[in-house]
Amino acid sequence: MDSRVSELFGGCCRPGGGPAVGGTLKARGAGGSSGCGGPKGKKKNGRNRGGKANNPPYLPPEAEDGNIEYKLKLVNPSQYRFEHLVTQMKWRLQEGRGEAVYQIGVEDNGLLVGLAEEEMRASLKTLHRMAEKVGADITVLREREVDYDSDMPRKITEVLVRKVPDNQQFLDLRVAVLGNVDSGKSTLLGVLTQGELDNGRGRARLNLFRHLHEIQSGRTSSISFEILGFNSKGEVVNYSDSRTAEEICESSSKMITFIDLAGHHKYLHTTIFGLTSYCPDCALLLVSANTGIAGTTREHLGLALALKVPFFIVVSKVDLCAKTTVERTVRQLERVLKQPGCHKVPMLVTSEDDAVTAAQQFAQSPNVTPIFTLSSVSGESLDLLKVFLNILPPLTNSKEQEELMQQLTEFQVDEIYTVPEVGTVVGGTLSSGICREGDQLVVGPTDDGCFLELRVCSIQRNRSACRVLRAGQAATLALGDFDRALLRKGMVMVSPEMNPTICSVFEAEIVLLFHATTFRRGFQVTVHVGNVRQTAVVEKIHAKDKLRTGEKAVVRFRFLKHPEYLKVGAKLLFREGVTKGIGHVTDVQAITAGEAQANMGF
């Protein structure tokens, strides 16, 4: 991580400072390359029949892996060829974890050749047969005309193929929602998930609040989860038709789980916990058009960068501002994103074509940052955000998923409940392995460093029953009559074969992002590592006596209250007031339960 990210945390990042890293990325028209960034075709001597310079448009060359497939045409394939095409579609769907994009009329090297109307119709018919063979659905995303070297109109067609994997109920994507207080985070989620526009006074957000004081103040102080579904045709499935959460899950082939986080600086620890423990695939940073980058916006942006969470930006409340005010806010965002600490390429989304391109670019390049401008009251450009979310593919590939599933079971405990007639219930994310109903696991560490045996009675995902949980998925597990008093946030439930180790002392390689004076031995900070959140004291700074903002070092920490389960390589974030730093765990000093009990008096 570039130490210049500290500018975002320290609040000393000037909107106009730093060299620009590329211009604002926008989708090109039919004659251009909407896949920006690929190699350009060589210019040929001579001219086309229309008398124009013959400069063929290109996409990036087709990659062997990934979920994007180029096909020049699919007209009347032989049976052998058809079976080969079906196998190829299965591979692309596996790579995209249930989603694939077909570009019809494009050569493997990325040349946009295009097809005549009759050939395109026949190719789409073949593609439909292929999808039926594998049990998938297809949706035409967009069509573009290509006028290169031909008098006849020729088109390329982009098609989304979606199939829910056999071992899953639906495709799942987790999106953390960040932004300053009063920027409209909960209101936007209410509009998306309830299907009704806001009245301008916050009516849409009322169903999202969990506590009375949140309703009274209009400010989120806790972490809440909301779901938005899309069926196989890309149509929105939400609560608008009086559906229950179970019905939404049953009707959807893709599910977006929004993690609504707090915007007020007072609840920053809750926001950090949501980002570190719930493992979001990406983040939505909401910025109010009338206030611009204000309050905790810059700090939330810095958190996303520090934790390497891909993010896109939504500029809200455009109905309250003049067009010039909205443009000024967008320019301000573009300047910050291009600064050396960010190295992002902003992409302003103004049309449905832009939204499709943005979703693909966002998944392929970590530097591309789409920017939407919309209103939750008038509904302006709200459909563009829905198109983007519908097309956005999973950001982890299938190989990583398979590797995680082959490891032993490890479930992070993030929430603890008591449900009448069910008993103790824990919520969290399965970090690795597979968890099934009836599995025997151990949970810990307790305050005295022990791990306790328990049994998983039942599993629910998005409020609907689920028999099997796979790595990367979030769920709630019912533990029956297990004593809730023995549980706390930050514990892990693991397979007994793992023989988990615990530690009170660990070392981490850190970058001090911001500190008003000098960072020394004896300084106490709140450490966030995954779902672990506890106060720790700095015992030693290797090779140095003190640290200043932007400096790196290996630091030894000691937990003050109880031992924790940590893994080498885990991302770490610490804070205390305005002091903030990031890094990763480099070493843990494993201890036994007896040693943990002896250390409790530290």
Give the overall shape, derived from the CA principal axes: globular
Question: What helical percentage do the residues reach?
Answer: 10-25%
CATH topology of the largest domain: Rossmann fold
Q: What is the CATH architecture annotation of the largest domain?
A: 3-Layer(aba) Sandwich
Number of strands: 30
Low-confidence parts, pLDDT < 50 over ≥5 residues? 1-5, 11-23, 26-54
Mean pLDDT: 84
What's the name of the CATH homologous superfamily of the largest domain?
P-loop containing nucleotide triphosphate hydrolases
Count of individual domains: 4
Strand content range: 25-35%
CATH class of the largest domain: Alpha Beta
Q: What's the helix count?
A: 13
Strand order of the largest sheet: 7-6-8-5-9-10-12-11
Region (Disordered): 20-64
Protein name: GTP-binding protein 2
InterPro entries: EF-Tu_GTPase (IPR050055), GTPBP1-like (IPR035531), P-loop_NTPase (IPR027417), T_Tr_GTP-bd_dom (IPR000795), Transl_B-barrel_sf (IPR009000), Transl_elong_EF1A/Init_IF2_C (IPR009001)
GO biological process, one term: nuclear-transcribed mRNA catabolic process, no-go decay
Describe the structure.
Residues 1-5, 11-23 and 26-54 have low confidence and may be disordered. The strands form 6 sheets. The protein has an 8-stranded mixed sheet, sandwiched between helices. The protein has an 8-stranded antiparallel sheet with strand order 17-16-22-13-14-21-18-19. The protein has a 6-stranded antiparallel beta barrel with strand order 23-28-26-25-29-30. A hairpin with a 7-residue loop joins strand 16 and strand 17 (452-455). It starts with 5 loop residues before the first helix and ends with a helix. Helix 2 (79-95) packs across helix 3 and helix 10 packs parallel to helix 11. The protein is globular. The protein has 4 domains: 68-163, Translation Initiation Factor IF3 (2-Layer Sandwich), CATH 3.30.110; 171-395, 3-Layer(aba) Sandwich (Rossmann fold), CATH 3.40.50; 399-494, Elongation Factor Tu (Ef-tu), domain 3 (Beta Barrel); 502-589, Translation factors (Elongation Factor Tu (Ef-tu), domain 3, Beta Barrel), CATH 2.40.30.10. The longest helix is centred in the N-terminal third of the chain and has 18 residues, at 117-134. It has 13 helices and 30 strands. It has 602 residues and is an alpha+beta fold.
